[in-house]
Design goal:
heterodimer, A: mainly alpha, MetI-like fold, two-stranded antiparallel sheet, about 75% helix, flat, B: about 270 residues, membrane (chain A), MetI-like_sf (chain A), Spermidine/putrescine transport system permease protein (chain A), transport (chain A)
Chain lengths: ~300, ~270
């Protein structure tokens, strides 16, 4: 005879089964069109490269090997793959600079919004949200129109008499940098605003009462309190910057590749799918490391001093 | 003159930087839109106000096709994603932790964490093979790919809404002998509606905006509006691209505005 506990357990089991059934469509779709293909790609990174793209189903570490090294065509000597490393380095460098630049612009902006009267704050936030929801490609294209040789930035600088000849910004690292700062700026401002909005200004007043200067108040009171927002914003900017593809393609013009473009190249004219797969996994791991750093940081600042 | 009252909130220079930021955010967009109304052929000289390029874009059959395709994909992907996400959200909220709950959560949100270019090439290699095997190369691949990356975007607002909902109402309905389906349709669903609308709109916009995944998954002649524009940017650019971009921009602004007001009414 079934006891009450048994019935309850059966009921619980039935509920959990129906919960799995309910979530099945979402899980299946995400598996088929995201996670499954990523696993296939992981497998491809350990296979032999085919003659015209694609892979041959034979185990090989060449893909991973050529992320870092290149074999000389004639005498088989090994050397570091400078081309790849310089692109990885450019990706990391540009992403770090982008993060820093968005922070320098974004923090005062978020602070400015957070100190507006309550009823106008929403409007300022809305003004940040609009560019955020505008198509990335359109924003990249818009930036192109500003920094082109005949664009308004150059026209303005010439008109002001600062320069005589237009600056060649397009198709340089600067163009990518301008594009990324512009495109990812809202991703910095919004989380910063979220933590600045909660800032208790009585603490700042207390700081001034205790004879702290403005700089000391900013450094010793405001910055520590909004650190979670700074970390969140930095991660939100750093991660898409690292994987940027459209911005370097449109503004960097084929010469100044970033990791995303290098990956595409291997699946296109490079015809080295295992290398492309290995580079993709590398990019993913870099992103995951950044994310992990964020999660650990968030956990620490959540539980610690309040 | 009396000294200005000391304001504890103000930090020197912050206002100036903030204004500079807003100029930076809007100057490129305004430039882009302005040139869409340029009568001149070139992108450099101002030839007076004109709607010429909007007409040009609207008559271009490639643009019409791409716009229609974008709309079909976004509507299908957002609809399927919203239904799947709603079901998944119901299955993963308001429950005691059970085995696999954390797994489901991570699984559904994974597309958010993988760089788009990585997902795009992964889909490319898998779909390339499937296309050869099945011989089918229709819009299905694009819709499937879009649905997958739309699911987390639809899932998050729906889940957030569900977590704030009072379970007592549903229990009351069940106590009054409403069968489970009726409880869901008459109580849960109406309460959940704002979350579902937000999720759908988010998914729709995300799908409409996608460039990278579409660029890699599409077969020949399957340009969406963003991939069409990307293709045009490689060539000599005419203000026609500006006109398309401006129209697209207007659509985004309208959707964001609606979204903004829906969310504001709720709180």
């Amino acid at each position: 005879m079934a006891s009450a506990a048994d019935v309850a357990r059966q009921e619980e089991g039935r509920k959990i089964r129906s919960r799995w059934l309910l979530s099945a469509p979402a899980l299946v779709i995400v598996f088929i069109a995201a996670i499954g293909p990523l696993l296939v790609m992981l497998a491809y990174s350990f296979m032999t490269k085919g003659d015209y793209g694609d892979v041959k189903p034979a185990f090989s570490l060449d893909g991973w090997f050529s992320v870092l090294f290149q074999r000389d065509m004639f005498d088989d000597t090994l050397s570091l793959a400078d081309a790849h490393l310089s692109i990885v380095w450019r990706s990391v460098r540009l992403s770090v600079i982008t993060t820093f630049a968005t922070l320098v612009l974004g923090f005062p902006t978020a602070y400015f919004i957070a100190t507006r009267p309550r009823n106008t704050r929403e409007v300022w936030v809305f003004l940040v949200t609009i560019p955020f929801w505008t198509n990335l490609l359109i924003r990249t294209f818009a930036m192109q129109q500003v920094i082109r040789n005949e664009g308004i930035l150059n026209s303005l600088l010439i008109w002001l008499g600062i320069i005589r000849e237009p600056l060649q910004i397009m198709y340089t690292d600067w163009a990518i940098l301008f594009g990324m700062v512009y495109v990812y700026l809202p991703l910095m401002v919004l989380p910063l605003y979220a933590s600045l909005e909660k800032l208790d200004f009585r603490l700042i007043e207390a700081g001034y009462d205790l004879y702290a200067g403005r700089l000391a108040v900013l450094r010793r009171i405001i910055l520590p309190l909004v650190k979670p927002g700074i970390v969140a914003g930095s991660i939100l900017v750093f991660i898409p910057s690292l994987g940027a593809y459209v911005i370097p393609r449109v503004l960097g013009g084929g010469k100044n590749l970033m990791l995303g473009n290098l990956i595409e190249l291997q699946f296109g004219s490079g015809r080295n799918w295992p290398l492309g797969a290995a580079l993709s996994i590398t990019l993913m791991v870099l992103v995951m490391v950044a994310m992990l750093f964020y999660v650990r940081n968030a956990a620490r600042s959540g539980g610690g001093h309040g | 003159m009396a000294r200005a009252r000391f304001d504890v909130r103000s930090q020197p220079g912050f206002g100036t930087i903030a204004l500079f930021t807003f100029v930076v955010l809007y100057l490129p967009i305004i430039t882009l839109v302005a040139y869409a109304f340029n009568a001149s052929e070139s992108l450099t000289a101002w030839g007076g106000f004109s709607l010429h390029w909007f007409g040009e874009a609207a008559r271009n059959t490639a643009v019409q096709d791409a716009a229609w395709r974008s709309l079909v994909i976004a509507l299908s992907a957002a609809s399927v994603a919203t239904v799947a996400a709603t079901m998944a959200a119901i299955a993963t909220t308001r429950t005691a932790p059970y085995r696999g709950l954390g797994f489901k959560y991570a699984f559904i949100n994974l597309p958010l964490m993988v760089p788009e270019i990585v997902t795009a090439v992964a889909l490319l290699i898998v779909f390339a093979r499937v296309k050869v095997w099945t011989g089918y190369s229709g819009l299905g691949y694009l819709i499937l790919a879009h649905t997958a990356f739309c699911i987390p975007f639809a899932y998050l607002p729906i889940r957030a809404r569900l977590e704030g909902m009072d379970e007592a109402l549903e229990r009351a309905a069940a106590d009054l002998y409403a069968p489970p389906w009726q409880v869901f349709r008459r109580v849960t669903l109406p309460l959940l509606r704002p979350g579902i609308i937000a999720g759908f709109m988010l998914a729709f916009v995300i799908s409409l905006d996608d460039v990278v995944i579409s660029e890699f998954v599409k077969s020949g002649g399957q340009d969406t509006l963003p991939t069409y524009m990307l293709g045009q940017m490689r060539r000599e650019i005419t203000p026609e691209v500006n006109a398309i971009a401006a129209a697209f921009l207007a659509l985004s602004v309208v959707l964001v505005t609606i979204f903004f007001f829906i969310n504001r009414k709720k709180t």
